[in-house]
Amino acid sequence: MQPVILVVEDAPDTLRLLCDALITEGYEVVAARDAAEAIERLEVTVPDGVLLDAVMPGLDGFGLCQRIKATPAWSHVPVLFMTGLSDTDQIIRGFASGAVDYVVKPLRLPEVMARLATHVRNARVARLAQAAVDVAGMGTVLLDTLGRPAWLSPQVSEWLDQAFGTGVHERKAAQQWLTEARQGGEASVPMGLNGRLVARHIGQGGLGESMLLLAQTQSDNAAIQRLREIALTPRETEVLSWLAKGKTNRDIADILGMSHRTVNKHLEHVFEKLGVETRSAAAAIAGKLLP
Hints:
By secondary structure, the protein is an alpha/beta fold.
């Protein structure tokens, strides 16, 4: 499946040059001329990488990169800055805003393609590795020296939202709960009909970091029985589970090692068995039925 690259560049000639080169390299390209257009594109399609001009009218590249990294659905996407050769301050600001690399103007296309390919590949491997943590029904969180979450696996992020909520105060409560689990070795919190969320401190994950393993205890046997009555196949259940976690069809195909077409076929059967017509409706049912 072709990786998708978002190119954000206000100079038409440079934008055209990059798009042509990326298409030749086998990428699908989404183009934007400023930060506002880029955000519109991101809300429709989450790319595999971003080539971002540092200096643009309106919100500049640094502000846009910060916005990308602050949005959970986009934060995993590697951002490469395009900047002038002698603009050391821009390079420092780019890394500070969350970029993984930079390329200098005038652009040397072979270098741009090589750097981009490396970061796209590394990001995809990292995402699959993170997702694999959740397949066994558990999740992982790393706390820094101040007790702040330094990294959350996708499942942990979803569980914490369910248990505590998504507001500022709720996130602080979730952080405090994780800190208590680190200090006491274990902590749990109710999740309504979904049982309890349990966090266990399992040791050091890096310099000054603490690693916690989270799991959900189930208490709704009726939901499991209902899932059996629907008669989903094991593969259909896997596809539905990843859909409920917010994964796109492309993500599901990568995680389960199947083609995009096969994922679509499984979802057609799932929708029919559940008696729904949309992804959101299927995800809502799955959230109640799947452990």
